[in-house]
Structure formats: C-alpha cells, structure tokens
Amino acid sequence: MTNKTIWLTGASSGIGEALAYHLSAQGAQLILSSRRVDELERVKSQCEGSPENIKILPLDLAQANSLQTATQQAIQLFGHIDILINNGGISQRSLTKDTDLSVYRKLMEVNYFGTIAITKYLLPHFAERKNGHFVVITSLVGKFGTPYRSGYSAAKHALHGFFDSLRAEVFNDNIKVSIICPGFIHTNVSINALTEKGDKLNQMDEAQANGMSPEECARQITKAIEKEKLEVYIGGKERFGVYLKRFLPGYFARMVRGVRVR
User: Fold this and answer.
1) I need a labelling partner for 224 at 20 to 30 A (CA). Which of 62, 99, 167, 178 fits?
2) Cα dihedral angle (74, 79, 84, 85), rounded to 10 degrees?
3) What does the pLDDT look like over 116-143, one tens digit per residue?
C-alpha cells in the first residue's frame, strides 16, 4: 500500500477507522470521508505517517446531489486515486412487518445508491488512467438473509449484483473489483442500526460484542486488496453460512429461523 492513494468512506469509526490506521502505517496516502468532521479529525490525528499524506473530505452518502462534486474534490486532493474503499453504510434491526418504508428507502439510499454513485463518478478517472481498484465492504448478509436485517441484507445483495457486473465490464481497462464480506466485527454497527421507525437501536448485539476485532478485520481486508481478491469472507463460524446456503439450502433455511439476532 506504500504511496497508494486511497479514498476511504465511513472512515470515522469501526472498520473504516481501523483501516485508516492500518493503511497509514503502511505508507498510503489517505482521503478520509464520513459525515462527522470532528471524528475524521480525531482519526487523522491518530494515523501514522506525515499529516500531509492524510486529507479529510466530509461526505454524506445520503445526499445524492453532492456526490459528483465530492468525487472531483477527492481526485484533486492528491491529483489521482488508486483505490476506492466503499465502506460507509448503516445497518438495521427490525422485523419486516414493523418496518416503515422510509427506513428501507434510507438503507438503500445510503448503502446502495450512495456507494454506486461515487463508484460511477470515479469510474472515468480509473478508465482514463487504465488503472484502479474498487473495493466494496458489503456483509455476509449480502450472501444470505437473516431475521431483523431484511432491508440491510437487500441493500448488500444489491451491491453484489452491481459490482459483479461492473467487474466484468471494466476488466479490459485494468480496473479491479473486490467484494469484502465481513461477519460479526466488534464495532458500533448494531448500536447505530436503524429500528422500525428509523431510530437508533442504541444496543450492542451479543454476537457483535463477541466478534472479531476491527483491527484484525482491517488486516484481512488489506491483505485481500493487495492480492486483488474477487470476493472474501471475514469473521468466525458465521462464514460457513455462505456454504450452507449454497450446498444445503433446505438445512440452512431451517437453521436461520432460530438464529439469535439480538
């Protein structure tokens, strides 16, 4: 990652924050984006390396009208971008029967439309340079759905469809696409998750609390980027759900009904 210019969304907490520290320690030039400027400043101050190699670009993935301008600003900060890590997003904890449509729309706007917007706006830059790497942090529930996460899972499934298609389209331009699917990582993702009315859950999932550290997750993500992996699964035993769903779908369907999700 030395001297690579990397634009990282969702950089103010969780996996994104851990990635910022890990990548800066490896000598990358970083563009850190999220909504909270004060938190971005905090993360920047704790990154290794020269402060000149770390820039802050506030960004709200839900504000579609601002994303094209933000992408051009990101390119101008260092003159080019080598890697975009689409990490920004928000989760959900609510039953389908109780969830307002507005919550589903917000989940899609942030997790899907915001992500593909900056990807699309950056694509001409990568194509012109005949080089670039799109990395998208989805989730294991982008491979299989579980209770309480219907909207979140749907948005992550959509990202898989988009980026699988994109990978095939841009291969001849030497542009890579990596899909990263974390499982339970010990972050505040469940605390910030949306409930049926769009409020924050303000509660840590037990599985999240016992999950992999964000530092180890960041290490594995970086390794996958370096090896230009197409798709990777990160976490504990929850990773086996991908293979159960693929090879034993009936068993998986019965098992997932009793999964403790909160």
Assistant:
1) 62
2) -70
3) 999 999 999 999 999 999 999 999 999 9
Cα 224 from Cα 177, distance rounded (Å): 11
**145 Ramachandran zone, left/alpha/beta (phi>0; psi -120 to 50):** beta
Residues 102, 95: Cα–Cα separation, whole Å? 14
- CATH (residue range 5-257): 3.40.50.720
Tokens matching residue 39: 């938190």
- For the chain, the DSSP string reads -TT-EEEEESTTSHHHHHHHHHHHHTT-EEEEE-S-HHHHHHHHHHS-S-GGGEEE----TT-GGGHHHHHHHHHHHHS--SEEEE-----B-B-GGG--HHHHHHHHIIIIIHHHHHHHHHHHHHHHHT-EEEEEE--GGGTS--TTBHHHHHHHHHHHHHHHHHHHHHGGGTEEEEEEEE-SBSSSTTTT-B-TTS-B-----HHHHTSB-HHHHHHHHHHHHHTT-SEEEESSGGGHHHHHHHH-HHHHHHHHHT----
Q: Computed from CA positions of residues 60, 66, 133, 80, in that sequence, does the dihedral angle turn out positive or negative?
A: negative
Tell me what percent of the residues of the chain surpass a pLDDT of 90: 92
By annotation, the residues acting in catalysis are 152
- Report field, pTM of the whole predicted structure over 0.85: yes
